[in-house]
Write a structure and sequence with these properties.
138 residues, five-stranded mixed sheet, alpha/beta, single chain
Length: 138
């Protein structure tokens, strides 16, 4: 018996649909990342982030980490997420908190970032299995 072939685009869309759903918010809570805002805070401190910093938050979800960094450290953040619903919710949260001058969210593919190289000073890439912090030349 042959396994059905599923395209990469289908898998990405399936994940984006799930992470943009009420079920994901119910199951995972406010932050979809391991360690939540406590770990985000620790990483930001170790990276020396502050008002001078520009950060790219890859797989930003509903913007929890990006909004926290902007509020707590004064960073300028661009969040990118494959889910249009997450992008919409994150933009609304930024507007509610008065952070639209420092935080922007876009819908896009993390494997094909719609930004020129070295546009950000730092990047956050986190998921359940691993965490990578990438310093980009500025």
């Amino acid at each position: 018996m042959t396994e059905p072939q599923v395209s990469e685009a289908t898998v990405k869309q399936c994940c984006a649909t799930f992470y943009g759903s009420d079920a994901a918010r119910f199951l995972l809570g406010e932050s979809f990342h391991p360690g939540g805002t406590q770990l985000t805070h620790e990483l930001a401190q170790r990276m020396g982030l502050g008002p001078h910093s520009r950060v790219l938050d890859v797989a930003s979800g509903q913007g929890t980490s990006a909004l926290y960094l902007a509020e707590t450290f004064g960073c300028e953040i661009v969040g990118i997420d494959f889910s249009e619903e997450n992008t919409r919710l994150a933009q609304a949260a930024a507007a509610e908190r008065g952070l639209t001058s420092r935080v922007t969210f876009v819908t896009g593919d993390a494997e094909h970032l719609p930004f020129p190289n070295a546009e950000s000073a730092a990047g956050f890439f986190r998921n359940r299995l691993r965490m990578r912090v990438l310093h980009l030349p500025g």
